Amino acid sequence: MTNMLSLRPGDRLPDFALPGLDGKLRKFVWSFGGAPVTLLVVADLTALDPTQFGDLRAACERASTTLVIVTGSEIARAAPAWKKLGAEPEQPLLLCDPKGQYLTALLAQGGAVSFGQAMGLRQRVIVLDPNQRVAATFDTRALAAATEAIGPLADSVRANGGADLLLNTAMAPVLVLPRVFEPDFCTQLMRLWAKGDHKDSGVSSRYGNVDMAKLKRTEDYMIVEPMMQKAVSDRLAYRIGPELTKVFAFDREFTFDAHVVLSYSAEGGHFFAAHRDNGAPTTADRAFAVSLNLNDDFEGGELVFPEYAGVRVSPPAGAAAVFSCALLHAVGPVTRGRRYALTTFFRQKR
Ligand SMILES: O=C(O)CCC(=O)C(=O)O
Ligand SMILES: [Fe+2]
After folding, report:
1. Per-residue pLDDT tens for 85-135?
2. What are the backbone angles phi and psi of residue 7, rounded to the nearest 5°?
């Protein structure tokens, strides 16, 4: 973990290991057991207000989130302070980082390069979803603000939306990752599409220069604005990149294809028939496809995976569907309204 840690909502917090009060190392990832995690980072444990700490503990319990504390205090100094706060040795979990190995980065302010703790915050609360991704950070009145917000916040990122779904068919190996793009960013991209020159693309070098007329009819806008290209790439790299390592054991260096906003309308009869994304010599280095719905006020337009029992996937706005470029897939017809999707590919660097 570096000082340049990115803690924007959706970013994945890298794992770290620190000793607890018993001096034994614990990995942060061990705190994740299916529930959101509230991480309280505090430079000096003796400076923590016992009432506020008690309130935060109670709120975390009510919200069924796991509370973890990281402090810059040494174990010998932390132990009596911990007792005073009314906590038990292991409940909640306290991790000590007197050398500031991770603390400095966890308390650093908004992307600024920090030269030690003096420039960072003294206290911060970071709420993470069950997949170790940032849901929100609280920097001012950190404990009180987190105590107030934790209930609804935890519910908004809980990973139990599929609990009623019992799969009894083959399942396409597609990773659906929520909250990759913020609602405002989705809107910006749709505006860009509306402003830009989006043509019915028949032939496209993106698809290996084959005649696409029978295969695809969509209205595409290729993002050429450097700021927007970077804004898209950063989000994909920070939010999807770590998942590729975790889920698919893909830890190669990568680059991206052009980022393209595809649009399919019901009245335009737009479609994308079954294809693979890495079939041409020019596309053979594509590893993973990203299809990210920018809106959800349409019907139809699901991703279909014919090799895997025809499973249909329709992620909510802002969520990405990520899958191997070798999988056969199609986009079913949009039957009402207009669908906008950001599509791109992770390419393996040679
Ligand atoms: O519209 C989509 O979500 C998928 C598009 C697609 O398959 C592609 O761009 O290769
Ligand atoms: Fe595709």
Report:
1. 999 989 999 999 999 999 999 999 865 444 444 468 999 999 999 999 999
2. -120, 30
Q: pLDDT digit string (tens) for 227-271? A: 999 999 999 999 999 999 999 999 999 999 999 999 999 999 999
Instruction: Give the count of alpha carbons within 13 A of 162, CB side only.
Output: 8
Nearest CA to ligand 1 atom 9: 343
Ligand 1 atom, smallest distance to 277 CA: 10
229: closest CA among 259, 184, 188, 269? 259
**Cβ atoms of residues 196 and 263 within 8 Å:** no
Q: Find out whether the beta carbon of 143 lies less than 6 Å from any atom of ligand 1.
A: no
Ligand 1 mean position, distance from CA 250 (Å) = 21
Compute, in angstroms, the gap from residue 122 CA to the centroid of ligand 1: 46
Ligand 2: centre distance to CA 92 (Å): 46
pLDDT digits (tens, 9 = 90+) for 314-323: 999 999 999 9
By the 8 A CB rule, do 232 and 344 touch?
Answer: yes
Residue 53's φ and ψ, nearest 5 degrees, are: -65, -45
Q: Are 280 and 253 in contact (CB under 8 A)?
A: no
